[in-house]
């Protein structure tokens, strides 16, 4: 059989990475391997361990295929799977930081990670300092002798600040700390985290990788600097992902190359339309020239996804509720990355500790799904009518 050449095109990687039909009687997708017990042909094999699969929790052909695919996509030394995106975030943090350690955390971080830092992390003896996500190389002034990791999320949850990852990584590595990044928004399709200096690249595969809002799963991909630590900690914690969920994620991964550009195209179209609306004070989308960090996006990213926010003109909160409550094609819901469009509100002032949020209007976060953008614009237009009526 002729060996395959190493793929370079992202769509080829998405279609073929982790795929081995010859291992499964020619079937393109591996069957779902459900099981805990794996039997051995003899005592020698059982005691010496040369058999690839030994116990269900330690992996099966489904998990191996997805880990191989994600590692190829990320340019990683290796990848582990976690039962949710949040679990992947916490796994990365605890891989890098131990008792009496210190972690630097962006003020724009995903809320549940902030909650972990103020609860379980404190009980484990881990200190957290929040920093301005736009600090760049200035983060060096926040390092302590016990700083073990810098956590990054670019762009930030809800407010979409971009971080200078190469500058942060240069400082962190010089100070013998690891860099963690939540790269769920861009995915490795549009931002190569490890190539930019990240040691532990986290994704909520629940979102764009799966793409169908029907499973929960997280991935952590490691550079060579961090792989042994990640692999050992993941094993020690007994982390496990269901083969049924893994199969759904692997299926979704195959179409990421056609889905994500559609999310990007529609989101940019709607974001530009929102900039023209009198009800909108500003649109927060890194792909727009009006975004404060647009130059960083142009430098480091090769695309954008379907998630962004806008801030309304000052108005009673009832006006925003009226706008969102009766939308036809936008549903109200957490998460994002599926085929459906979503909307939600939040107030950054309630969670910020290191930076100020000065906007007087209401923040609305949108996820632009795969619907016709003309229908989504018409839906928002009707919502703005309700907004003006309450205003």
UniProtKB/TrEMBL annotation:
SUPFAM superfamilies: PLP-dependent transferases
Biological or metabolic pathway of the protein: Amino-acid biosynthesis; L-methionine biosynthesis via de novo pathway; L-homocysteine from L-cystathionine: step 1/1
Chain positions found as N6-(pyridoxal phosphate)lysine: 207
InterPro entries: Cys/Met-Metab_PyrdxlP-dep_enz, Cys_b_lyase_bac, Cys_met_metab_PP, PyrdxlP-dep_Trfase, PyrdxlP-dep_Trfase_major, PyrdxlP-dep_Trfase_small
One GO MF term attached to the UniProt entry: cysteine-S-conjugate beta-lyase activity
GO terms (BP aspect): L-cysteine catabolic process to pyruvate; transsulfuration
Pfam families cross-referenced by the UniProt entry: Cys_Met_Meta_PP (PF01053)
UniProtKB keywords: Lyase, Pyridoxal phosphate
Spans through the membrane: none
Listed cofactors: pyridoxal 5'-phosphate
Keyword Lyase: yes
Catalysed reactions, as listed in the record: an S-substituted L-cysteine + H2O = a thiol + pyruvate + NH4(+); L,L-cystathionine + H2O = L-homocysteine + pyruvate + NH4(+)
PROSITE patterns xrefs: CYS_MET_METAB_PP (PS00868)
Entry's EC annotation: 4.4.1.8
Top enzyme class: lyase
Lipid metabolism found in the keyword field: no
Family affiliation: Belongs to the trans-sulfuration enzymes family.
Matching NCBIfam families: cysta_beta_ly_B (TIGR01324)
Record-given protein name: Cystathionine beta-lyase
Organism: Cupriavidus taiwanensis
Gene expressing this chain: metC
């Amino acid at each position: 059989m002729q060996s395959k050449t190493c793929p370079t095109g992202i769509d080829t990687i998405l279609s073929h990475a982790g795929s081995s039909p010859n291992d499964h009687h020619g079937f393109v997708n591996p069957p779902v391997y459900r099981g805990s017990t794996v039997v051995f042909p003899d005592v020698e094999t059982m005691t010496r361990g040369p058999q690839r699969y030994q116990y269900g929790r330690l992996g099966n052909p489904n998990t191996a295929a997805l880990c191989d695919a994600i590692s190829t996509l990320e340019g990683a030394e290796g990848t582990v799977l976690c039962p949710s995106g949040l679990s992947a975030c916490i796994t990365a943090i605890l891989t890098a930081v131990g008792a009496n350690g210190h972690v630097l955390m962006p003020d724009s971080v995903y809320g549940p990670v902030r909650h972990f830092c103020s609860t379980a992390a404190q009980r484990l003896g881990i200190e957290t300092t929040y920093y301005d996500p736009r600090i760049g190389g200035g983060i060096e002034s926040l390092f302590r002798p016990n700083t073990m990791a810098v956590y990054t999320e670019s762009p930030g949850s809800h407010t979409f600040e971009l971080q200078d990852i190469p500058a942060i990584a240069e400082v962190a590595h010089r100070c013998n700390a690891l860099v963690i990044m939540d790269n769920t928004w861009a995915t490795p399709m549009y931002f190569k985290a490890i190539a930019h200096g990240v040691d532990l690249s986290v994704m909520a595969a629940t979102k764009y990788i799966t793409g169908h809002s029907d499973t929960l799963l997280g991935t952590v991909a490691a550079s060579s600097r961090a792989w042994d630590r990640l692999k050992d900690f993941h094993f020690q914690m007994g982390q496990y992902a269901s083969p049924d969920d893994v199969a759904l994620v692997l299926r979704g991964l195959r179409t990421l190359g056609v889905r994500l550009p559609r999310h990007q195209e529609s989101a940019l179209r709607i974001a530009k339309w929102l900039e023209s609306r009198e009800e909108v004070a500003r649109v927060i989308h890194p792909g727009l020239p009006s975004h404060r960090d647009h130059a960083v996006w142009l430098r480091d990213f090769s695309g954008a996804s379907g998630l962004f926010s806008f801030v309304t003109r000052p108005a009673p909160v009832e006006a925003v509720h009226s706008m969102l409550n009766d939308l036809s094609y936008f549903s109200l819901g957490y998460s994002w990355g599926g085929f459906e469009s979503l909307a939600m509100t939040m107030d950054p002032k309630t969670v910020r500790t290191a930076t100020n949020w000065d906007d007087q209007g209401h923040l609305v976060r949108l996820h632009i799904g795969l619907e016709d953008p003309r229908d989504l614009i018409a839906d928002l237009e009707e919502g703005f009518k309700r907004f003006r009526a309450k205003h």
